[in-house]
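Reopening: structure tokens for the EPU complex, inputs below.
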Amino acid sequence: MATRRKDPTEQMDAFSIHGGQRLTGKISVDGSKNAALPLLAAGLLTDEPLQFSSVPELSDIENMVHLLEELGCTINRKNDKLTIQTTTDSQSHARYDIVKTMRASVCVLGPLLAKRGEVRVSMPGGCSFGDRPIDLHLRGLEALGATIRLDGGDIVATCDRLQGATIFLGGPFGSTVLGTANVMSAATLAKGKTVIESAACEPEIADLATLLNAMGAKISGAGTPRITIEGVDSLGSANHMVMPDRIVAGTWAIATAITQGDVLIEHFPLDHLLAVTDVLATVGVRIHQTDLSQNPASCTVQVVSDAPLSPVMFTTQPFPGFPTDLQAQMMALLCTANGNSIITEKIYPERFMHVPELSRMGARLVKHGSTVVVQGVGELIGAPVMASDLRASASLIIAGLAAEGETIVSRVYHLDRGYASMEKTLSQLGANITRISDSDSGDVLPVVETVSTNKLVQSDS
Ligand code: EPU
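Re-run output (same inputs, fresh job):
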């Protein structure tokens, strides 16, 4: 029987940040959340064990582990190592209780359908930054032969053995990352050949294909817009190291930049962040690989920001363009630049929940549709602000690192979904950031206190 777990939204921790500390030191990037979620779901495609390393310690990963346990998997976790094995296939229903806390639960859809021939997944609703349909996932699975209907808010999909097909996955905002993951995973067990046209090219898709191929799948072209899959009868066991998190890495680089810092970042996926490092270079932030013998997909870089920041114009796009998941963080940085920047959001036109909160901190932001003009103000001012989604939260923390005075960011459970103990990493680099827990009483109580003596060198503005 399903057990009730504590809803993360019941944990109303906040962060207090006293801005003005320059970030310096060395940190390392953990495995990627957005790679790990579909990788773990691939455990449903086989009866044999999968072993993972570099699995990040995040609430979204805990949610996925819980979901997979409900779906009949046995999971053992120790630090960043995780093994997963399906032990029973009697339960194929991803319940609303879980899907509503983590939209990415939808990535069990393809694996369950392909392996068990039936699946019921609660239809994910919209999220705080707008409508997020899954029509392309469903269209792709239907093309492989699934029968799909909606029943009581659940998607119910059934099939005999899936059949290979040619599928176009482009939508009004480009391809779909989790849709590509679902269709590619399902097609590994289909009869015959599948071609996915207009597939998502994100590195997380290439990482998933690497795992699936190690399990015995025959996938070529992952990481390009055309993926070809020759179906096989069954998949086996594999070991896999999750790729470094490019969004977390980019967040650390931007946090360093806003404090005029100097930070060494290990396991930095430089190769996956070239659009971001290009924008940062225009802004005046220097990022260089310290040891050229390392693989640029996971190398050590030094991030240095020691000059006044310049404005820039950028547009979010599917990979290899500038990622939407770093748009909010970059906006915080550009608030402190000398001049006007222009940001256009082409993946989620409504993903601007951070705009009114940054404005509370003195940012001058003018929004026209899916474009925001950022008038650089040089210095932000600390204020109580509210996190509304994962990356908006990161943006507010970054703003708080440079703001004058205290910033209180409430509802940081959003942040815990995608950044492992962010306050500890930032404290290690010299930030003055404290987690305020509401777990002990109705009053807010500081449970971690770290104060640094590093002083922020303000840019001329
Ligand atoms: N879209 C459709 N139909 C679909 C699917 C998507 O029209 O069937 C649209 C979406 O509304 C959006 C665009 O296509 O406008 C791209 O959406 P996509 O399906 O690629 O998003 P996703 O796969 O659900 C993943 C990440 C997101 C990230 C997006 C875009 C995971 C778990 N999530 O979502 O990450 O923003 O790709 O890169 O991988 C985050 O980490 O904060 C986050 C939101």
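The first helix runs from residue 33 to 41. Residues 34, 37, 104, 132-137, 171-173, 176-179, 200, 324-325, 347-348, 390-391, 418 surround EPU (CB under 6 Å). Marking as resolved unless the reporter disagrees.
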